[in-house]
Specification:
One of its GO terms (molecular function) is metal ion binding. The chain is α/β, with parallel strands linked by helices and 468 residues long. 42% of the residues lie in helices and 13% in strands. It folds into 3 domains: 235 residues, NADH-ubiquinone oxidoreductase 51kDa subunit (Rossmann fold, 3-Layer(aba) Sandwich), CATH 3.40.50.11540; 83 residues, Ubiquitin-like (UB roll) (Roll); 125 residues, Up-down Bundle (de novo design (two linked rop proteins)), CATH 1.20.1440. A 5-stranded mixed sheet has the order 6-5-9-7-8, with helices on one face. A 4-stranded parallel sheet has the order 3-2-1-4, sandwiched between helices. Strands 10-11 form a two-stranded antiparallel ribbon. A hairpin with a 5-residue loop joins strand 5 and strand 6. The radius of gyration is 22 Å and the shape is globular. The relative contact order is 0.11.
């Protein structure tokens, strides 16, 4: 695929300069999609999104239109009670290696707002809420300014665009917690509770915010909606693959020459993302592994030609997640990288499920022993047993993520494990956890939260060494 063709297929990042005012957005056709949607029936809007095959860009890849339809069709129950429907935008972005949602808000908050207004109208919501971490000060300020502009111009709130439709939209804030990104935990936070996932089976479409039917979509998903409504489902499906239509913004970090955010058509290979857009490995080094965040199995170098869509990534087997890829070359210790993710997940486990909190803690502890050269074969077997038996045992996916991620390192890099058992780690290079704080676009440089582990331990959210 030529660079020119790829540029033509950009949807969300068509312009280098950020849109700083509502007038900038209107000059580029902003809110014409909302106007078009308000002239359609609610079901016509939903059908267009369904026909476009838009899949959620937050990680799971669930079909957006089906989720919308599920909430739209919720009518009065057997007691005659009319459900109060909600739309929640997940703007938490707490996964290491991801920054695309914050970047998108910085570039263009208006497409998110317009997408939420279209979704609110289609679903028939009582209220729409953007849930964002309270530490994201820059993005909060941008959204507050944009929301005021749109409210003053009549694009959100009461009597939107003179149609008599009331479509309120507000901001909601949450803690710097990884689990804030879990949709059921996020709803708990918006209800004033801790970020603790609800029990399995309590899906938001059925039992969401305040027990009411709720759609939860992420920033990128909702920002894409106006372009689909304006240009049509067939146009959107002409980009990408049969499995995953459209484009996605990928966050690329680690051992590449040009880290950054790149919007590419789905089906672009992981190798193209790394070598063409990321500039490939540094100096004379060679790429050994790529992590799709801490959520999926590690991707070895011989799988780099895999197309970036949900089905292809499952086959290798790994996952596309929220589009964040962390690259490690041959100077990096892959076990050390895995230990970073294992510790992160152990710290972020909320503690509701003993199998999760103790299981992630045991895995991180034993992996730390192996990394230090103090591990034994028994530690390896114990880690693999925990990875196997804790999968699917928690209320959310966190403990399963640990099992998938860490066991895949042992499977794909067995020689590294043997080397650590015999000699300890032979690579003294520091590897930060890629928990991103900021991005300098001029230099293509990410700033990581280097003090995360120390701060977390100081707050008392540390892993207690288990009795072995």
């Amino acid at each position: 695929m030529s660079d020119q063709k790829t540029m033509e297929q950009k949807i969300l990042l068509q312009h280098e300069e950020p849109l700083k005012t509502l007038d900038d957005y209107l000059a580029r056709g902003g809110f014409q999609a909302l106007k078009k949607a308000l002239g359609m029936t609610q079901m016509q809007v939903i059908d267009e999104i369904k026909r476009s095959s838009l899949r959620g860009r937050g990680g799971a890849g669930f079909p957006t239109g089906i989720k919308w339809e599920g909430v739209y069709k919720k009518q009065a129950d057997i007691l005659g009670m009319i459900p109060t429907k909600y739309l929640v935008c997940n703007g938490s972005e707490g996964e290491p290696g991801t920054y695309k949602d914050r970047y998108l808000i910085q570039k263009n908050p208006y497409s998110l707002i317009e997408g939420m207004m279209i979704a609110s109208y289609a679903i028939g919501t009582y209220k729409a809420i953007i849930c964002i971490k309270e530490i994201f000060k820059k993005e909060i300020a941008i959204l507050q300014r944009a929301l005021k502009e749109c409210a003053d111009a009549g694009y959100i709130g009461d009597n939107v665009m003179g149609t008599g439709r009331n479509l309120p939209l507000e901001l909601g804030f949450g803690p710097d917690s990884y689990l804030l990104g879990e949709d059921r935990a996020q709803l708990e936070v918006l209800e004033g509770k801790p970020a603790w996932p609800r029990a399995k089976g309590m899906i938001p479409v059925e039992y969401g915010l305040f027990g009411q039917p709720t759609v939860v979509n992420n920033v990128e998903t909702l920002s894409t909606v106006p372009y689909i409504i304006l240009r049509g489902a067939d146009w959107f499906k002409s980009i990408g693959t049969a499995d995953t239509a459209g484009t996605m913004i990928f966050t690329l970090t680690g051992d590449v020459n040009r880290p950054g955010m790149y919007e590419l058509p789905m089906g672009t290979s992981l190798r193209t993302l790394i070598e063409v857009y990321g500039g490939g490995a540094k100096l004379d080094r060679h790429i050994r592994a790529v992590f799709s965040g801490p959520t999926n199995a590690v991707i070895p170098a011989d799988k780099l030609d895999t197309p970036l869509d949900f089905a292809s990534m499952r086959k290798i087997p790994s996952g596309i997640g929220s589009g964040g890829f962390i690259v490690y070359d041959d100077t990096a210790c892959i076990l050390k990288a895995g230990l970073n993710f294992a510790r992160f997940l152990a710290i972020e486990s909320c503690g509701q499920c003993a199998s999760c909190k103790t299981g992630t803690g045991r895995i991180a502890h034993r992996l730390g022993l192996i990394e230090e050269g103090k591990g034994t074969e028994q530690d390896v077997f114990a880690i693999l047993e925990d990875c196997l038996h804790t999968k699917g045992s928690g209320r959310c996916y966190l403990v399963t993520e640990t099992g998938i991620d860490i066991s895949s390192i042992f499977y794909n890099f067995p020689d590294d494990v043997v080397e650590h058992l015999e000699y300890g780690c032979l690579k003294d290079r520091h590897l930060p956890l890629p928990k991103i704080k900021d991005f300098d676009e001029a230099t293509h440089t990410f700033t990581f939260d280097e003090n995360y582990f120390d701060r977390s331990f100081a707050e008392g959210r540390y892993i207690i060494e288990p009795a072995l």
